[in-house]
Amino acid sequence: MDDGKTTITKREVPAVTRAVALLRRLGRSDEPMGVNQLARELKLVPSTVLHILRVLQDEGLVSFDPDTKRYSIGLGILALARSAIQKNSFPALVQPHLTELSERFAVTCLATEMLGPSHMIVVALSQSSVPFRLQVDLGSRFPALISATGRCFAAFNSLNPQDLEPDFKRLSWDQPPVFETWLEQVSEARLRGYAIDSGSYISGVTVVAVPFFDAHQRMNRSLVAIGISDRVEAAGLPELTRCLLEARDQVSALQITTKGSAR
Question: pLDDT tens digit string along 141-155?
Answer without folding.
Answer: 899 999 999 999 999
